C-alpha cells in the first residue's frame, strides 16, 4: 500500500458539516421508471456530489431485486468514472463471497487505471440477496460467510492487489492485471495508488476483523441501527495500527431524505418503507409511488415495521435533516457520514442531496 493510503481514506469536512459527507447509491428504480433512468440519475448525483464537496460516492451490490439496479458495481463505477473527475468512487460494497478474489482484484485494478487515486474497494461478506440467488451466483449450495472463509478470501484478495504471494504459494506466479506486476516488467511504470480496502458490516464480525487488520470500517446504520454503537466501539477497541491507518477510521451509512417541506418527506419515506415491507416479505418490486403507498392498506404488523424502519430514517426539511445528522454523528462518533436517499423519483433524491449540501454550506460550483 502506498505511503499516502491514509490520505486516500480520510476525508475533509466542508462548510459546517461536522465530518466529511459522502453518498451511498442503491441505484433505485421507481415504478414507471427504467434502469436507464436510474443510472442517469446516478450520474447526476455523482456530478452534484463532486461539485458540492461530498467526499466519496459508493454503489452497493444487490441481486434479484427489481427496484435496485446495482448488481454490477464495477460496471457502474466505470460509467461514473467517465462522467466525473475528482470525487472518490467505490463499492459499498462488493460481496466478496460471491466472487473469486482474483476477479475482484482485476476489476478494481482496471477501475484504478481509469480513475487513478480515487477508487475505494469496500467489501462485505453477506450475499446481497436471498440464499437461492446466492447459490446461483456462486454455483454452489454451500453458503459459508463465517469466521473461516471470509478472512481467508480477504487475505487472498489483498495478496492479489499487492502482488505479493510468497515464493512457493500456488498463486505466486499469477498476477492481477492491471496491477503492481506491470512495474516489474521491462520498461514498466506502475501507478503509486491501489484501491484502499474497506470492510463493511452490520454486526460485530467485520468490525472486529477491520480493527484487527487496521483497515477502515463502514457500518450499515441505515438497516442495522441497533448495532451501530456496539460495532463501532468494538472496532475502536480492537484496532491495531497498520501500514494503512495509524488510528481507526469509521463511516456509517445513513438513510437521509430532505425535501422542501416536511409533509413531502413523510410521503416519500412511506413509499420507501412500503418497498422494504414487500422486500422483507418475499415480494420485492419497484419502488412504489407516494400515491400508491398512501392508498396501501397496511396490516398492524406492517404498520409496526414501517414505524420502526422510519424511526431510523432522518427526514424532513433541510434544517431538520441537518440537525438529525449532527445528533447522530455526536452519538456515534462516526468519522464520516455516508448518506443514502431512498425515494421513488430520481429528482427527489437529487434534490435531497442539494438541500443537504445547502444546509451545511458546502462549496458551490464556480
Describe the fold and architecture.
42% of the residues lie in helices and 13% in strands. It has 366 residues and is α/β, with parallel strands linked by helices. The chain is globular, with a radius of gyration of 20 Å. The two termini are 35 Å apart. 49% of the residues are buried. The mean pLDDT is 93.
Bulk shape: globular
Number of helices: 13
Total strand segments: 9
Terminal Cα separation, in Å? 35 Å
**Structural class of the helices, strands and pairings?**
alpha/beta
Low-confidence stretches: none
* Estimated helix fraction: 40-55%
Q: β content, as a range?
A: 5-15%
Main pleated-sheet profile: 8 strands, parallel, barrel
Instruction: Provide the gyration radius in Å.
Output: 20 Å
- Mean pLDDT across residues: 93
- What is the string of SSEs from the N terminus onward? HEHEHEHEHHEHEHEHHHEHEH
Arrangement of strands in the largest sheet: 1-2-3-4-5-6-7-9
Highlighted features:
42% helix, eight-stranded parallel beta barrel, alpha/beta, 366 residues, globular
Q: Summed up, what is this model?
A:
By secondary structure, the chain is an alpha/beta fold. Helices cover 42% and strands 13% of the residues. The radius of gyration is 20 Å and the shape is globular.
Write the layout of secondary structure elements.
Blueprint: H1 5-9, E1 21-25, H2 35-52, E2 56-59, H3 73-81, E3 88-95, H4 101-114, E4 119-124, H5 131-138, H6 149-162, E5 197-201, H7 204-213, E6 217-219, H8 228-238, E7 250-258, H9 262-280, H10 290-295, H11 300-310, E8 314-316, H12 318-332, E9 336-340, H13 346-359
Parallel strand pairs: 1-2, 1-9, 2-3, 3-4, 4-5, 5-6, 6-7, 7-8, 7-9
Helix pairs in contact: 2-13, 3-4, 4-6, 7-8, 9-11, 12-13
